[in-house]
Amino acid sequence: MRKLAYILLTGLFAYQAGFSQPTTYKPGEAVYYTIHYGPISAGEASLVLKESKYKGATVWHSKLIGKTTGMADALFKVLDSYESYIDPATELPVFTIRNIREGRYRKYNEVAFDHVTRKDSAILMSDLTGKHIAQKGILDIISCFYYFRDNILTVRKDLKEGDMITLVTWFTDELYPVRLKYVKTEEVKTKLGKIKCHKFNPVTEKGRLFKTEEDVSFWFTADKNYLPIKIRFDIFVGAFTVEITNYEGLAYPLDIKN
Asked: pLDDT tens string for the chain (258 positions)?
């Protein structure tokens, strides 16, 4: 389950320097999803962005929560949360929290990001592993999600089938490169209606979970929001899908066809 949660999140990472206010999202945005294992409803997730304060400065606080429901919850209870406090001027994280509860497994981690002290790199302070030096502009899994929408999808209008985007993230106290392959633009059927989307395949590692390098797919809306509305994992024991069920506070109206 932890491996799936990792891929679900890391597929959304990217960095490219910028210093203007975001245009694809704003505080008040909230997106809600259901998680299915085949035809079975297994869980739900939410991603909410609010204005907040961190050490006296105004930041944007994003929180992702994923949890099991119904029979899945009775068999193996999961309640995972990821939080990121983001500087709205740079879209870089200043503080993150990872709180994992899966069955009897527990993991809690806080990381502070210093993007100012060093000119050529960033300083990361983890409560579990101490000090790390990372590349300038390093993002966490949540801020990368927003940055990908606002600085990659809005700029790369010329994406063609097979184009590869190389991404870098700091996750579980490790520097981890991720590659996303653009597949195509297609219409996706959701509970809200039909939505035109950009489809990406993050390159997965063949082994315990995946048969090929293209067993995970992401769909982002092809409107001005670039909102993730669907994710699919094809694994050895079946398929997981994450699908949008509701939303509020988007920067632009969602382009939906009934």
From this structure: 444 444 444 443 333 334 467 999 999 999 999 999 888 899 999 999 999 999 999 999 999 999 999 988 999 999 999 999 999 999 999 999 999 999 999 999 999 999 999 999 999 999 999 999 999 989 898 998 898 899 899 988 888 999 988 777 799 999 877 788 899 999 999 999 999 999 998 776 554 555 555 668 899 999 999 999 999 877 655 678 899 999 999 999 999 987
Question: Is 62 within 8 Å of 84 (Cβ atoms)?
Answer: yes
Query: Is residue 185 in some structural domain?
Result: yes
Q: Which amino acid is at 241?
A: T
Domain that holds residue 171: 2-248
Work out whether strand 228-235 and strand 174-190 pair parallel, antiparallel, or are unpaired. unpaired
Q: Establish if 255 belongs to a structural domain.
A: no
Q: How many domains does the chain divide into?
A: 1
CATH for 67:
2.40.360
Residue 37 half-sphere exposure toward CB, CA atoms < 13 A: 14
Distance separating alpha carbons of residues 171 and 128, to the nearest angstrom = 13
State pTM to two decimals. Answer: 0.86
Which residue type does 230 have?
K
